[in-house]
Design a protein that fits this description.
This protein is of the alpha/beta class. It has a single domain, classed as 3-Layer(aba) Sandwich (Rossmann fold), CATH 3.40.50.880. Helix content is 21%, strand content 26%. It contains five helices and eleven strands. The strands form two sheets. A nine-stranded mixed β-sheet has the order 2-1-3-4-11-10-9-6-7, sandwiched between helices. The radius of gyration is 16 Å and the shape is globular. The structure holds glutamine.
Length: 224
């Protein structure tokens, strides 16, 4: 499964993501600049990384979501290609209309940068099948707009269709997200958005490897 990483001005976690993929696969991933209009046919996983695309002006992800590469990401998702959005990447996928809801200012109104505990609510997705259902993992967060909101009907649909993939566990909700939601998938199950940063926990030097199974799942590296 060949991965590619989207690059937009102002993103800064692209380098962490490239390093994580290189650590896990031994190969540098393809990168796709914002002007690209097509995702190459052999790419099976597109990653939209975190950071501050276009300085978070207007709303986090609102400007980046209108760039040509994001239209290409939407077309690839419609073909069934897997798409992973982390932090600003999650914000971009919501702004691009690939995932429902909104990411509002953290309830504390502060930028939050710390480790949280995440519960794997759905271990039956392409991104989480190398975790155990209910497993609690460590994962860092670093954002000011991570407060997930969705209207009651959308929330009921997300819950009913098992589309809530991660929840903040054990009172570690860092941003006031509704129902402790930290990550969701689309109806088809091939687009995942999450606020925490699994790419920052993939080798012992990071202080843990709890994020690794997500990439191994999404890249079909280890069969669950
Ligand atoms: N680390 C990130 O991707 C941050 C996302 C966004 N800029 C925010 O602060 O909410």
């Amino acid at each position: 499964m060949k991965p590619a990483i989207v690059l937009l001005p102002g993103l800064n976690r692209d380098r962490d993501m490239i390093a994580a993929i290189e650590t896990i696969t031994g190969k540098k991933p393809l990168t796709l600049w914002q002007t690209e209009t097509e995702i190459p046919a052999d790419v099976g996983l597109v990653i939209v990384p975190g950071g501050f695309s276009f300085g978070d002006y207007l709303r986090c992800g609102a400007i980046g979501a209108r760039m040509p590469v994001m239209r290409a990401v939407a077309e690839a998702a419609a073909r069934g290609v897997r798409v992973l959005g982390v932090c600003n990447g999650f914000q971009l996928l919501i702004e691009a209309g690939l995932l429902p809801g909104a990411l509002m200012r953290n309830a504390s109104l502060n930028f939050v940068c710390r480790s949280v505990r995440l519960q794997i609510v759905n271990a039956d997705t392409a991104f989480t099948r190398n975790y155990r259902p209910g497993q609690i993992i460590d994962c860092p967060v670093a954002h000011h707009d991570g407060n997930y909101f969705a209207d009651a009907e959308t929330l009921a649909r997300l819950e009913g269709d098992d589309r809530i993939v991660f929840r903040y566990a054990e009172g570690t909700n860092p941003n006031g997200s509704t129902a402790d939601i930290a990550g969701i998938v689309n109806a088809r199950g091939n687009v995942l958005g999450m606020m925490p940063h699994p790419e920052n926990l993939v080798e012992p030097a990071h202080g843990g490897t709890d994020g690794r199974a997500l990439f191994e799942s999404a890249l079909d590296l280890v069969e669950a």
